[in-house]
């Protein structure tokens, strides 16, 4: 539509803009409203591409440490672990006190052989309690005897610390009882005799 002159004067144009024409009703119904920006992936694809948190998709990463822990627990419970550990610590303390640069170390025998032999045998008893728990009664009694003998041979039993650790560890190993398995019909007492569990 051509611009009409203002007040009938030629050359002057009405500065007011013309109103925009309304779009046809059919065009508005044909175009659906935009719900997402162009270029964004659909919601279904975004949900499918989401990655699980670390470790969620790899059960082996979480069960590996659990299996190691269960294996360690079953091995530790199948032998007098704490008694053997105390015996080993007592033997190590006695050996340390023998090797200490102190003038109060008591030497007995040729060149103080017993001062080293007794704690070494005590250390061997502690290791054998872990390796061969079936003979724990013999090793535990021998460990107690060697710990008492270290009072005379190895600097008063490592200043009483190694002596007490050896006696306590030997007593714990002697009193230890294996836990019966889930399918076992009985258990072993400290004397090694097999007795049936009550029904």
TrEMBL record:
Instruction: Note down the stretches annotated as region Disordered.
Output: 1-64
Which InterPro entries did the record assign?
Answer: DUF6114
Can you tell which superkingdom this protein's organism belongs to?
Answer: Bacteria
Q: Does the keyword Protein biosynthesis apply?
A: no
Where are stretches of biased composition, namely Low complexity?
23-61
Q: Where is the composition biased (Basic and acidic residues)?
A: 1-19
Q: Which UniProt keywords apply?
A: Membrane, Transmembrane, Transmembrane helix
- Span-the-membrane segments of this chain are 81-101, 113-130, 137-153, 159-179
Q: What is this protein called?
A: DUF6114 domain-containing protein
Q: Which organism is it from?
A: Plantactinospora siamensis
């Amino acid at each position: 539509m051509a611009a009409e002159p203002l007040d009938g004067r030629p050359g002057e144009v009405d500065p007011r803009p013309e109103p925009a024409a309304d779009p046809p009703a059919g065009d508005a119904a044909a175009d659906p409203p935009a719900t997402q920006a162009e270029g964004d992936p659909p919601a279904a694809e975004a949900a499918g591409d989401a990655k699980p948190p670390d470790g969620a998709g790899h059960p082996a990463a979480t069960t590996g440490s659990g299996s190691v822990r269960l294996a360690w627990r079953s091995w530790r419970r199948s032998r007098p672990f704490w008694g053997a550990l105390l015996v080993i610590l007592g033997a190590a303390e006695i050996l340390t006190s023998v090797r200490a640069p102190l003038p109060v170390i008591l030497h007995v025998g040729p060149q103080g052989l017993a001062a080293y032999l007794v704690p070494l045998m005590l250390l061997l008893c502690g290791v054998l309690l872990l390796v061969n728990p079936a003979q724990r009664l013999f090793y535990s009694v021998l460990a107690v005897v060697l710990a008492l003998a270290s009072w005379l041979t190895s600097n008063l039993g490592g200043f009483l610390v190694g002596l007490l650790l050896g006696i306590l560890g030997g007593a714990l190993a002697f009193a230890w009882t294996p836990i019966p398995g889930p399918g076992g019909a009985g258990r072993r007492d400290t004397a090694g005799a097999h007795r049936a569990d009550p029904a």
